[in-house]
Amino acid sequence: MKPGSLLARHVAPVPTSRRWLVPMAWFILLLMLSAGMGQLEWLFRLVEPDVREVIYRRAGFFALLGQHVMVVGVASLLAVLLGVGGAIAVTRPAGRDFLPLVSQLASIGQTFPPVAVLALAVPALGFGTLPIVVALLLYGLLPIVRNTLAGIDGIDPDVHEAARGMGMTAGEVLRQVELPLAAPVIIAGIRTSVTVNIATAALGATVGASNLGDPIIAGIVNGNTAYIVQGALLIGLLAITVDSVFERLQPASQA
Amino acid sequence: MIELFDVTKRFGSEVAVDGISLRVETGELCALVGTSGCGKSTTLSMINRLIEHDGGEIHLDGQPVRSFDEVALRRRIGYVIQSTGLFPHWTVARNIGLVPRLLKWPKGRVRERVEELMQLLGLPVAEFADKYPRQLSGGQAQRVGVARALAADPDILLMDEPFGALDPITRETLQHELRELQARLHKTIVFVTHDMDEALALADRLVVMHQGRIVQQGKPIALLHDPVNPFVESLLGGMDRGLKEAALIQVGERMLPLGPRLLASERIAYGASLSQALSVMLWHQVDRLTVVDEEDIPIGELSLRRLLGAKAS
Q1: What is the pLDDT of residues A169-196, one digit of tens each?
Q2: Which domain holds residue B157?
Q3: Same domain, yes or no, for B265 and B192?
Q4: CATH 1.10.3720.10 fits A17-249, yes or no
Q5: A181/B84 Cβ within 8 A
Q6: Cβ of A94 under 8 Å from any chain B Cβ?
Q7: Domain ABC transmembrane type-1: where (chain A) (predicted)?
Q8: B99 → closest Cβ in A156, A159, A166
Q9: Smallest CA–CA separation between A168 and chain B, in Å?
Q10: Whole-angstrom Cα distance, residue B217 to residue A40?
Q11: CA-CA distance, A199 to A215, in Å (whole number)?
Q12: In degrees rounded to 5, what are phi and psi of residue B134?
């Protein structure tokens, strides 16, 4: 037994009510700020004393938040399905040959700037939500693929041999041994992917996908720092909320 | 009963197992011994088809292993490996219950069986059932490994250097327990080891392998007496063979009833080995020992001449 090679560390569970206190606090702050941005007019007035309008009003912050969450949600869901699915496929005996190819493709997806993906996607897919979903999907794949591969590869080969030797089918090994043992690492990858994509999704505003990026772009175009701060503030809060949810989801602190 | 007929395994151009034939009778413990890379572990893995053989046939109770579904085959063969391979994310109880659950036993029966096995292997249920493998010592972990292998009550047990990673004292304890377990359960066991003392102590049949072939097989004592070549002789301990043989014989087999003479001052247990008796004689510089039973009551005596195998004292 080599304890260092084991990924799962089981810790005593914190009571559910207390466990979710921090994410709940961030979430409530996010909702309160989305609803009550207007109340902070005096504050933003300090930032931009000279412009007529200091609160972004072209669309409600709630609607923008909802659209933001939806775009990131759809892109991340697809990235998880494709990324985890792909990584599982290439770690099966039948798919091993494609392992280098898939990890390279995922790396390329990450090195390709999302702006460039958007520029290329718009002519093909038109303006709107679709190009930003594609860009986020490609951008978010790498951490998921890489971590799923690392998680599965990191499992002690002896555990694998024992599982097969005991007479588990390939599916039973995957569901009962590989995925649970790799879960902390896989979830860490999804966490990185989603958090980064919450920020990146703001770019969608440039191709007509309205979301929390809108105030930022409008702020840049009109030279209104208050708008930029409002968009950035909500995006940041959303990212922190989601990140703290993932922190609690991680079944065990990883090795 | 396990039978191998002219079984061969190649890895690329390298021949790992070269046409070996072997028959392990039901209820027999067969130890495969040899230096690293002699093909003993490969041979073991071919029986439960973790490695497929290239040539020859392997039969279980007269049926070729290839005729079974490999998953079904493995579920009826217990498997113990050196590193235990316990699932780190499962408790001891869940690890032990693995194969019964795969076989879809009802929950209550799985629990009963797990508790029965934990008792059998000296793991108090209250203390160990909910522990995780990383909380166990090496010896405890391997007890769990053996319990897991026995869970679905397989007729056949394959053990690949199961005690190789343990400290000498724990190893000896577990060897002793395995012997007692085997005396009760009568499994057909194939046991791979490179520790000759372990093989001699446990095996009904000893199979010496070298470079993918079986060099010699037979009862441990027979091999000690008649090694076919210098390789087997040195593997069996060379000049130490006398002591190794003495370690296989109990004092009780050589002792004489108490005579008219005074009791010798030094004592030896009835169940001790002749090598231990010899050691006691050397240590105390005496040539006669009093043999005692479990309650330390004298029941006979052992002289050096008797120990050496002479007919009369």
Answers
A1: 999 999 999 999 999 999 999 999 999 9
A2: 2-239
A3: no
A4: yes
A5: no
A6: no
A7: 65-246
A8: A166
A9: 6
A10: 89
A11: 14
A12: -70, -15
Q: What is the CATH number of the domain that holds B267?
A: 3.90.1280.20
Task: Give chain B's domain count.
Answer: 2
| Residue the block writes with tokens 């798919």 | A95
Length of chain A: 255
Q: Is the pLDDT of residue B94 over 70?
A: yes
Q: At what angle do helices A61-90 and A21-36 cross, to 10 degrees?
A: 140
Candidate from B79, B134, B141 with C-beta closest to A165: B79
From chain A, pick out residues whose CB is under 8 angstroms from the CB of B79: 162, 165-166
The residues pairing with B158 across neighbouring beta strands, listed in sequence order, are B79, B190
Domain at B225, CATH number? 3.40.50.300
Residue of B nearest to A181 (CA): B89
Looking at residue A48, its pLDDT comes to 77
How many angstroms separate the CA of residue A251 from the nearest CA in chain B?
Answer: 11
Q: Give the tens place of pLDDT for each residue, B190-214.
A: 999 988 989 998 999 999 999 999 9
Exposure pattern of A58-78 as b/e (b: 16+ CB <10 Å)?
eeebeebbebbbebbeebbeb
Concatenated DSSP letters of chain A: --GGG------PPPPHHHHTHHHHHHHHHHHHHHHHGGGGHHHHHHH-SSSS--S--SS-HHHHHHHHHHHHHHHHHHHHHHHHHHHHHHTSGGGGGGHHHHHHHHHHHHHS-HHHHHHHHHHHH-SSHHHHHHHHHHHHHHHHHHHHHHHHHTS-HHHHHHHHHTT--HHHIIIIIIHHHHHHHHHHHHHHHHHHHHHHGGGGGGGT--STHHHHHHHHHHT-HHHHHHHHHHHHHHHHHHHHHHHHH-SS---
Walk along chain A (255 residues) and give the pLDDT tens digit of each residue: 444 444 444 555 556 667 788 889 999 998 888 887 778 777 877 877 777 777 887 778 888 899 999 999 999 999 999 999 999 999 998 888 898 888 888 778 777 787 888 888 888 888 888 888 888 888 888 899 999 999 999 999 999 999 999 999 999 999 999 999 999 999 999 999 999 999 988 888 888 778 888 889 988 888 888 888 888 999 999 999 999 999 888 765 433
ipTM for the whole predicted complex goes beyond 0.90 = no
**How do the domains of chain A map onto residue ranges?**
17-249
Q: What strands, in cross-sheet order, belong to the sheet with B267-269?
A: B267-269, B288-292, B298-303
Q: To 10 degrees, what angle do helices B107-120 and B138-150 make?
A: 130
Q: Which of B211, B239, B267 is the last residue of a domain?
A: B239
With beta carbons less than 8 A apart as the criterion, state whether B100 and B113 touch: yes
Q: Cα angle at B175 between B170 and B176, to 5 degrees?
A: 100
φ, ψ dihedrals at B292, nearest 5°: -120, 155
Nearest-by-CA chain B residue for A163: B85
